[in-house]
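User: Predict the complex with adenosine-5'-triphosphate.
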Amino acid sequence: MTTDTTTQGTALADEIREGAGAVVLDQVAKSFRGPTGVKMVVRDLSLSIRPGEFFSLLGPSGCGKTTTLRMIAGLEKVDSGRIFLGGVDATDLPAHARNVNTVFQNYALFPHLSVFDNVAYGLHRQHVPKAELRHRVMEALALVHMDGFAMHRPQQLSGGQQQRIALARSIVTRPSVLLLDEPLAALDLKLRESMQEELKRLQRELQLTFVFVTHDQAEAFAMSDRVAVMEGGNLVQVGSPEELYLRPATRFVTTFVGRANFIPASLVEGFSASSPDEVASRQLSESPDGEESVGAEPSIFVRPERLRLEIGDSSGQIKGPRVRGTVADKTFSGGQTIVRVKINDDVELSVTCDSASNEARDASIGGAAAVTWQPSDATLLDR
Ligand code: ATP
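Assistant: Here is the predicted structure with adenosine-5'-triphosphate placed in the model:
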């Protein structure tokens, strides 16, 4: 973690003691032995997921998200550290003794069983009486709007419908935590978006804790109360989507969760190393993600929608930090137009403008332009 680890460690220890977290990971580590030797896949991961929270693990392929989820489920043993579920140390409990269920990307339905029997499977294993079983299965199917399909076979259903059945099957046994491993990845974009809304609704209605794994930032942001960003087996930052987007802790988070502009400080009119606050209201003093330094020069990070464009004569009217260049490109995308401004051979900035604005209309390729911003919207990176 990049933020105050001492405070965080103490808060986490408190949550473990008080059993406040639905899922608490305390310095969990995992490695696998492969052809090239032992590889650390998850390093000293500590986090606390609150009861009833929609929590996402977000990161690029291979960063350790699924392994983390599988350790919570009990499908993978930890090398070190502890896992608490509902305040109880579950580290050494087998998967079937943990009150969690997992929904996988590939649905994993039994093809020879009807929808009803697929959903009823876990209840049969728990020897739930017949009348109650029937009631609970139909209730779960109704929750995912599939009660009219009880006698269908999985292969008679679309991908989205099969995923709904997988969801019904995972909630029918009333787990306290539902783990979801890229459950929407196999669906096309439109269906995925409507399933995102449904998952969120279901989570709200059931007040269940959801732990959702995805590499899709938009998906994580659309659904989650909080998101943990992972990189190379490390937890880099935990926060609400707004916090991650507006206050990213590292350069990696900055670029992973959205479009970012990095402006070398030397190009900014009025920048002075002694008064950096005039161009950036917040400083990042280090880049703990281990990325290669792009020279020693500090740079300023601003999101495209926080930049203001000035075209031709209007240039200089807005007070504040400023860089000058020429319009390199203009892309209309409905309500917004992205204007790219070339500052020099190495630096081009993206500015999001309202398509109806004078700036969007007047920006012509090759024409002079300036880019400004409010210091409070900028972050100074020290390299
Ligand atoms: P993806 O989004 O691609 O699923 P992920 O972030 O979920 O990625 P993991 O599946 O947790 O990543 O894998 C993390 C790393 O651990 C990868 O390099 C993967 O190859 C390796 N790994 C995972 N499971 C095993 C295993 N059983 N044996 C050996 N290596 C493994």
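The two ends are 19 Å apart (CA to CA).
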